[in-house]
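Re: the 570-residue chain
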Amino acid sequence: MKHKHLLWMGLSCLLLAGKLQAQASYQNHEQRSARLRNLAAANSAIASVRSIGKSRGQRDIWLLTLSKGDASKKPALLIVAGLEGAHLAGTETAIRMAEKMLANATKDSIAKLLDSKAIYIVPCANPDAQEQWTAKPRYARSENGLDYDNDRDGRLNEDPFEDLNGDGLITMVRIEDPTGTFIAAKEDPRVLVKADPAKGETGKYLLITEGVDNDQDGKFNEDGAGGIHIDKNFTYDYPIFVDGSGDYAASEPETRAISDFLYNSPNIFAVLTFGPNNNLSEAPKFDQAKVSRRIITGVTQKDATAMEQVAKLYNSLGLKDAPAMPQTKGNFSQTAYFHAGRFSFTTPGWWAPKVEAAKDTTKKADATTAPASSTGGGRAGSGAGSAAANVENDEVRFLKWADREKLTDVFVEWKEIKHPDFPDKKAEVGGLAPYAKLNPPVSYLNETADKHVQFVAGLGMQMPEIQIVNLKTESLGNGLNRITLQVVNKGLLPTYADIGDRVRWVKKVKTELFLSNGQSIVSGRKINLRNALAAGEAEEYSWLISGTGKLTIQAGCPTAGTASTEITLK
């Protein structure tokens, strides 16, 4: 089986080689739209694409559905990418996964997956923000197309980024100042990190985003184009009065489009989100204190066990050494679990691999100088007036990998400029190029897509499967029959997440009798509802039925599928 799996993965690479070689970079909305429409048209028997809503900028939010047969009647997985506008790699990975699954729709595990399950894919949930990739100047944008007064001064978009060095990119500005709190990292002086007083470190630089303080409020670039960060606008743990979160939860059409589709699709068993968060490399841990509260803030014990099982599957595919990326407030991934009651997994999909540092016998460069380098790394974006935390853990790591891969155009060398807000101080523009850290050259995502197709196929094989077993019919005379059976979950995961029974949104496991004319129930219920069935768990039911002829018993739920059996009573 392993050899067959490798064979279809190899065939996939050959079938897609021409397309992937032709695509040299990430695409804009128009290009992605055409790509999705063409993909659905070429595979119309098992693929369809439709818009589930419009962004603030009136761009379609596309839903690609992969299924043999009616998708709404099968247990489903929902894949969502592009909620974080600066995370282009997630969007590209999701589309490549679809291309690979469709190219191998008749082979082994993918054929089984599409026969029994439905795959929903929303490749780009925040298309307005992703358009900044092809705009000038280029900066890693997270906000949608709403004109919004971010600094609450009664004016719109009055303090945007400015391209001070004329390179078409928005990076950072470092200013030498005795009140600064940043220093050059010892591991790589191209990167600035917070000085640590506990280590006797004294700050040397102020660090701001590239631009000037147009409205003279002491903040830099805090009110530029764009309004709401979609992955801060969902309902769970919504961050009130936080920049980019919106006036209220689910205020944005993009948020509502994704939420409406999830809530109106009871067959969605689990959600996989591609974004700068990670609960797959290391599954969330059970914490009784978090579950005992009126408002639950942690995964339940049963769900923690199931999520650990899925994390082991993920890690077994060679997806290792992922950086720590904690969940953030108001994001979709947590809303899908805590409010919609579905298993919810999130991963960046791609991250810079760890690189062993080469032994250096030369004297290290002075941390106060700006080293020349045409290769290096970039951060996914430059947030207004702030720098990323844990830069030693991710930006330095990215630089090592980028140097090894000999990547170009991902780091802007620090170059002195005259900054109007700091006329008497040395100011330099440079740093990690926008988008680079989270978004490698697209060629690196082919392997990423392969591994995540394997993961989705493996997850599909572990999903629940309802069967009716040990059926017995006993005639008691005078037209009376006793029927006994068991409803069992033959899958390796529960029929739905345990949290689903708490939020009361997920449909329970239902066992129902459909009687013919002249039949009646003497003992037992026509409809039996119960909470989630664990992997391998069975529930026994018994009825006394008066009458003859055929009757049907159906058992299951939308997230696990249904099974039915027909009985003839004599």
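The mean pLDDT is 89.
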